[in-house]
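Sat 14:20. Reprocessing the chain from the morning session after the first attempt stalled halfway. Input below, unchanged.
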Amino acid sequence: MPDFARVIRDAYLEILEREADAGGLAGYDARMNAGMSEAALREALLRSPEFASRNPQELASRLALNVHIPSDPIVDDVTRGLGMRWVRLDFDWFRIEPQRGEFHWDDLDRVVSRTAAGGASMLATLAYTPAWASLNPGNPQISDPPDVTVWTDFVRAAIERYRHEVRHWQFWNEPNVRQFWTGSRPQYRTQILEPGAGVARAIDPGLQVVAPGLANLRDWRDWFREAMNARDAIDVVDHHDYQRSGADVLPDLERDRPAQPSLRGSGPTRPTSGSTTRTWWRRSPKGPG
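Finished this time. Tokens:
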């Protein structure tokens, strides 16, 4: 029979932060030989009394899952099965408004309603330019800087539709990645972040603006410093720290602490919510966590 000892040991170390005991090794090895998947093994450890006792501080309420635009069973699994209290949703502009003034909200109506019914809060990420809104009509890309007026029209339409269910809004995703944004650092701040935040504030001052959502790649610190020129428009700082596992994220953040120099005097900056790749810092008592 196959020997699953290595897989089991790795799962114990990552989830329970200890070596696997002999009984656990033997028991899970037998179950995996009988058909138990590695995913099911990890879920069993996450649901174990030992894990619960080691993580008493409402762990689920401090974790989020990036679900894009999920099916109803996935929404239910995330909110009711895993007990996640936060999800991140994609509000892809080019899909929602493929022609100016022609809005397709059906999928988001379903997901937002079902997520709210499952008791989870939502972070909406608005991004990606439709061809008709691009300033490069000869060869439009979703990464193109859009006309600011039509961008804010879209932001306004989305927020006015969902502001009662969705209280946290992020304007663009990973603008330091050219696949997602081909404009400059100042263009991101002045044409996307600040106008979007202005619309949110005008509609409902209680809404939370989350930014800048950078990937920790190449010159991301330069992008971060540029975005922090708009720090008065930002309520929650988020950073996409791509590592092999969540256990690797926290030491990396401790080494760098990118938010603190730029946010000095702006309020607390402790990590409040995240997943393997996304970590948030609070700037004010209104933020999540």
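Strands lie at 64-68, 86-92, 121-127, 168-171, 208-215, 236-240, 271-274, 278-282.
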